[in-house]
């Protein structure tokens, strides 16, 4: 940690294994996928499908507040309008208490999509079920998910999530990385091994062009080829990662918009 702080203050580029945008900026970049990146991809896709009025739901804890702020910031330029944000206490009773307010605001604001910020191990199963039982969800109010709904795979069985959209990396690229890693090291890669690989891939690509690693070369608009598809580092220290959009159909995830393979096209 001390070495990281020293490097961060020295002008030497620092590529972190974090997705916390609070540490990004200056000469520090985050390599992990961020809430902003996921929200931007989903909002852009949803708006293209006519789901352009989005109500945000979020827990009152710090993670929920960060999620809400990320979605609101990401909405700019996507064609989607955030119609409001309704918080709930992070408990079954707290969610149940907030559901009538969420339902009322979804209808009164003319929303046609609802952003669910919860995860499959916590609030997502409860809020998706209770909201769908009030008629909020499905075709009239499409759900958008800030977290992965396919981890664990059993989450795709949840009735409330049927028809909803969530984002994920290019699974073909991820599987290729895992296969190569297993063949070389005889086991599955660590969960953050892909971030280490991507950081070195960026440095290697810059070096192969005979350039020096620095702010200008790291933030090349063309980006780099990574373990989950293309990515690029932004001037503010955050990251753009190519993501696919999947829809839950018949209790399985079906990709409805593949991850882009370059920057500047659909999905960016």
Topology:
Elements: H1 2-8, E1 14-16, E2 28-30, H2 35-48, E3 53-59, H3 62-74, E4 81-88, H4 92-108, E5 113-116, H5 124-133, E6 142-145, E7 165-168, H6 171-185, H7 193-208, H8 215-218, E8 224-226, E9 229-233, E10 239-241, E11 244-249, E12 252-257
Parallel strand pairs: 1-2, 3-4, 3-5, 5-6, 6-7
Antiparallel strand pairs: 7-11, 8-9, 9-10, 11-12
Helix pairs in contact: 2-3, 4-5
Overview of this structure, please?
The protein has two domains: 13-33 and 171-241, Rossmann fold (3-Layer(aba) Sandwich), CATH 3.40.50.2300; 35-168, Rossmann fold. The protein has a seven-stranded mixed beta sheet, sandwiched between helices. Strands 8-9-10 form a three-stranded antiparallel beta sheet, with helices on one face. The chain has eight helices and twelve strands. With 268 residues, the chain is α/β, with parallel strands linked by helices.
Keywords:
single chain; 268 residues; alpha/beta; Rossmann fold; 2 domains; seven-stranded mixed beta sheet; three-stranded antiparallel beta sheet; 12 strands; 36% helix; 21% strand; disordered N terminus
**How widely separated are the two ends?**
34 Å
Number of individual domains = 2
Strand tally: 12
Number of helices: 8
Strand percent estimate: 15-25%
Q: Pairing-aware structural class of the strands and helices?
A: alpha/beta
As a whole number of angstroms, the C-alpha radius of gyration is 19 Å
Largest sheet, spatial ordering of strands: 4-3-5-6-7-11-12
Residue runs with pLDDT of under 50 for 5 or more positions: 1-9
